[in-house]
Design a protein that fits this description.
mainly alpha; globular; transmembrane helix; membrane; transmembrane; transport
């Protein structure tokens, strides 16, 4: 009898990991299909917006040259600018699917070379912003998760005010106060560590306010759990209780939100780089839009959208793996 009972136990124990891998694969496939639609929509919208802007691509290509009508016609034919709009659109989608973005119309260099030379500056700003967002939001949430209502109300009011401020307006305000008036930080265009402070604050202010509110709500809910009473009965201090025991219970919704923030920061960095005249993708995309440099604009839009969807896919998989409730809901 013992052997009969042991025989069916082996497949049941081995069925767990394959089932989990199947669930992860299904989740990734669903998210990937939705992401492909997002990327297609971003590229299509950018293509159409550039086409309806004043001025033509041929004018951009020949802006600095005095050419004969014959040369102009040859260039238009070479770039297939005389094709119908639908033909140009389908041809460009085909090139994007093959990873061929061509050369910049204005910079006269491969698109990915132009982006690659500016991308490290943007990644530095995004990394600094994420570090500040995590550290500041955890600190503020732990401090503000207080039983006294006026403390929470004060922090909530400040967070609402910060979220309502547009990042570019906050950047201009920081420049006016700390650069032009107090002269504490470089005004514009500095690549020194001190020149990174104000752009990071301007870009991180909104995410910190949102993350603090989510973390604080999670902390307040966790403080009502029975394990808190047990921990306090063992003599654990209030700060240690919140950091070592309560905080981890509030991290799951904050992790999902942080993934969304991380994916969208590259778009926010574009605006901040323009305000502070920093090197990076922001100044490149501004230059490309002003000159209707379509290959550069579409490549940057596609890069931004791809980063956003990839980060969110990773976060969805992590949450699905960590939290059993999400697996039960999806089954």
């Amino acid at each position: 009898m013992a052997g009969v009972l042991k025989t069916p136990a082996a497949p049941v124990a081995a069925a767990g990991p394959p089932r989990r891998r199947t669930g992860v694969a299904r989740l990734v496939l669903v998210r990937a299909a939705a992401s492909a639609a997002v990327l297609w929509g971003a590229v299509t919208a950018t293509f159409l917006l550039l086409r309806v802007m004043p001025g033509g691509t041929a004018d951009v290509l020949l802006a600095r040259s005095a050419v004969t009508p014959e040369v102009r016609e040859r260039i238009i034919s070479e770039y297939r600018l005389d094709d119908p709009l639908a033909t140009q659109y389908l041809a460009y989608l085909g090139r994007i699917a093959r990873g061929e973005f061509g050369e910049s119309y204005v910079l006269r260099r491969p698109v990915w070379d132009a982006i690659g030379s500016q991308l490290p500056h943007t990644l530095l700003l995004i990394t600094a912003t994420l570090l500040v967002t995590v550290a500041a939001s955890v600190l503020l949430a732990v401090v503000s998760a207080n039983r006294r209502g006026w403390v929470r109300s004060s922090f909530s009011a400040a967070e609402s005010l910060v979220v309502a401020l547009p990042p570019f307006w906050l950047g201009l305000l920081l420049l006016t106060v700390f650069s032009f008036t107090l002269h504490w930080f470089p005004a514009i265009g500095s690549s020194s560590p001190s020149g990174l402070v104000l752009p990071t604050v301007a870009l991180a202010a909104g995410p910190v306010a949102v993350m603090t509110g989510v973390l604080r709500d999670g902390l307040l809910r966790a403080l009502e759990e029975p394990f808190v009473v047990t921990a306090r009965s063992r003599g654990i201090g209030e700060l240690a209780l919140r950091l070592r025991h309560v905080l981890r219970h509030a991290l799951l919704p904050a992790t999902t939100l942080l993934g969304w923030i991380a994916g969208s920061l590259i778009g926010g960095a574009v605006i901040i780089e323009i305000v502070f005249s920093r090197q990076g993708i922001g100044r490149l995309v501004l230059f490309a839009v002003e000159n209707k440099d379509m290959p550069v604009v579409i490549a940057i839009v596609l890069l931004t959208a791809a980063v956003f969807v990839l980060v969110n896919i990773v976060v969805d998989v992590l949450v699905w793996t960590i939290d059993p409730r999400t697996r039960e809901a999806g089954s």
